[in-house]
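User: We ran a pulldown and think these components assemble together. Before we commit to crystallization trials, I'd like a predicted model of the whole complex to look at. Sequences follow.
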Amino acid sequence: MPAIKAAVCHAFGEPLKVENVDLRAPIAGEVEVTVKAVAICHSDISYADGAWGGSLPAVYGHEAAGHVTAVGDGVAGLSIGDNVVVTLIRACGGCPSCASGAPTICQTPYDGDHGPLKTADGGKLHQAMASGAFAEKVVVHHSQVVQLPADIPMESASLLACGVITGVGAVVNAANLRAGQDVVVIGAGGVGLNAIQGARIAGARRIVAVDMSAGKLEVAKEFGATDGVLASDPEPWKAAKAAMGRGADAVFVTVGVAPVYDTAPRYLAYGGKVVMVGMPATGAESKYEAANFAAVGQSMVGSKMGDVVIKRDIPWMADLYGQGRLKLDELISGRWKLDQINEAIADTKGGSARRNVIVFD
Ligand SMILES: [Zn+2]
Ligand SMILES: [Zn+2]
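Assistant: Here's a predicted model for the assembly, 361 residues in total across the polymer chains.
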């Protein structure tokens, strides 16, 4: 098997190790993509820190863009040389979720222990999130891949794999936001900024960003927030409601912090919904006053990966980017080499970064 360089996690909480690993050629239904850019997501960091468990050693990384360099049997519509984005949304196409148009919650399990990766000495190497994209190349199922315009920069395109679709999709698909509705976005990080620009694209009236950092609230305004509220305020929902003149039709929780879910319903208008995007660590619980939901028709709904259908949603987002109506370049705060991945992760953990992207020559 050909050797490639990848950043491998051998123990939770330890630095990743960049080393040679083996990647087999694509079999039926798979494609090989030579990675040109891969963004670092908080999910990668949560996995590497052990927050969600999982098999080790493992290769994380799931927000990649690159060129198709090999195609397995039975793959239609993708050719060698195509610019593509690689997502973690592996969809079988035949389970009840896939068949009802919800591929992000595909019910067919995938075991990354038996994927295309092996350690250099032939041992088990887990392909995390069906991607393993902190690497020079990936071999993935064709359902995870979407063709891109030829002229889109690869580092910008990589963001379409996760952070952008998760935020924009939460607004457009999960909340089904109508023009004129009011929105609160809790957390103005990589996903939150995209929920904010998704709300702007969808025609929201007021878009209130809530974050611990005054600097991030300023950035949020560049992405379309009309108002900003500091989360350190003892009762930030009061300031948010004052800005809107009412409660929110949709509140997007984009941070993986359980106590934030306790208070998210307080921002709601009658009939409003909390869209649950951020994922706290396994076992973390939150609580809220249950009766209110029935009394005033409120709801909480989970949204995985923006409930996207990638071959429908990524092309329109790429086109909006080409028109200057969806910001991608502005989301990138740092570019790094694969050998610098631990520094890049530390920078992301510092909290001030938007998206750090690993780029390949
Ligand atoms: Zn991600
Ligand atoms: Zn499925």
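The chain has two domains: 3-161+327-359, 167-304. That may be worth checking against your pulldown data before setting up trials.

User: Thanks, that helps.
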